[in-house]
Amino acid sequence: MFNWKHIDEVYIYDGTFFGLLSIVFDSYANLTIPIKMCTEDDYEHNILDKLTYIETDEEKSRRVFDGIVKNVSFSTMYTAYTAFLSGQKNKEISILKYLIAAFKTGPEINNMLSIDYVLETMKLRRNASFEAHRLKGLVKFRCVSDNQYYAPIHPDNNVIEIVGKHFVKRLPTQNFILHDKNRNISFVYDTKEFRVMDVPNSLEIPEYSEEEKLYQTLWKTFFKTIAIKERTNKKLQMQFMPKKYWKDLIEME
After folding, report:
1. Strand boundaries in the chain, DSSP class E
2. Which end of the chain is more exposed for a tag (fewer CB within 10 A), N or C?
3. Per-residue pLDDT for 252 more than 70?
4. What is the pTM of this model?
5. Mode of pairing for the β-strands spanning 32-38 and 5-12
């Protein structure tokens, strides 16, 4: 569709969204697409690969961000960002092509689902958005100290910020920590601002308060009491509440 040239190089970047936007800037200017993009940690060594290390350029990434929002649409940028949160490997090339194409076609890019990289970007966005939506209803906070609540999650996608912002709106006066244990990162909110930060492997979660233990017992009892044994349908239950999330649900412990 476009006159870009595929080059035999692997781009190594820092794994951030602004790092990706920096590459979009250069690729758009040079009309070149690498064969692969990944972080140094994810790179699988191959002596035949030609590696190019790309540093994140804040000015370039900001120009791309503002350019997409102003000249295409905010929805297009949000689609690219949400797709970027996907846990799927090798997602970067599709998003890169999607954003370059967006500059040339405008908002119509989102309707061009017959193009493979547009369709793939939409799938990535839908997958991450759906998991974030599901987690908003499944997260259970536990009281670990006075006015401090904690909830562990194990998402497939890096959606902790989307889910965390949801609970900032729902619980604006509550201190809480949302902990993505798959990535060892946390969303920390102190009723004034939030931060997303790395969590050390050595972190020990404080014991639940006595009141929390009581509420958990009451909740488990309620959950068990209202269940009708003869109407148990594990298959249907897993359809609405996949088994991979059960480890973080109090009633399923």
Report:
1. 5-12, 32-38, 51-53, 142-145, 148-153, 175-180, 185-189, 194-198
2. C
3. no
4. 0.85
5. parallel
